[in-house]
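Batch manifest line 290
LIGAND: zinc ion
JOB: complex structure
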Amino acid sequence: MAKSNTNETKFERRLLCVVAHPDDETFGSGSTLIKYAAEGASVFTSCATRGDVGEIADRSDATPETLSAVREQEYYDAGKVMGVKKSILYGYRDSGMAGTADNDHPNAYVQVPIDVVVAKVVDTIRELKPQVVFTFDEGGGYGHPDHIHASLATKLAYFAAGDPSYTGSTLAPWKPSKLYYHGFPRSIMKTWFAAFAEADPDSDLAKLDVNEMGVPDELLSTVLDTAPYVDMRRKAIEVHRTQYSPLDRMPTPELADSYLNQDFFIRVDPPVPEGQTGIFEHDLFEGIEE
Ligand SMILES: [Zn+2]
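JOB STATUS: finished
ARTIFACT:
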């Protein structure tokens, strides 16, 4: 059958984005969510924590006591702006940046055994039946322990969801077709984080190793043109008022453009064909027929 050259399909396309904190879905890959929702796909997000110990931006009225409730609402509101059909929140406690005392809090997300977290994500996949699932890269973008935990849990859940012998969920198996890691190209991240360090040498972000940021550019398999959705992305970023906007901290307009105009991914499953290098896909649903 000839392949349609429009974005219209005869079946419902369903996309699930799995993140760790309210704002990850918007600051990380919001344009991807907006793009597919605008094209008629059913877009879903699941978020592990309420972002309890995040920074509080100057422009916000939130206090450390109200932050988690305010951020939860920001997550739902940003989802509405982006056209997300359902925004799920598991409600674990934010573990904080690597090496902070919050890592050891008994309720911290990173303290939750991986099997327990996997079961939650399997339930979500089996309930929503996405063909495409994506999450953070294995390094969590910039090493955040919650991102790394969510990435591993999502990969394990992706394969368990379609396995009838998996005992962690009572729902009927559903096998998604494709798994991706959303990845910021290291070339962009190096420039960006070096600018953080220069602007505020005492910030947590300044202490991170720029050579470990994002993913090596050569590992990226997939890029989406998200330039048409920049205005809506900016509106969704605005909704996360308790958080410093990534756009406020952009050192140059060129870097802001590279952040907003494209979203990059690593295809995990099906595996990238042997010998295939560089970007070869421009649509997360490429090859999916039903
Ligand atoms: Zn996060």
